[in-house]
Amino acid sequence: MVFRKDIQTESGAHTHQGGLVIYVTRGAGYSVFDGEEYHWKPGDLLILPVKPGGVEHQHFNYDDSQSSQWIAFIYIPFLFQTGSMLAQVKEQSNWREMAAKDTGDDDTGRDDSDAEEDPIVAVTRIIGQRAGDG
Question: How many structural domains does the chain have?
Answer without folding.
Answer: 1
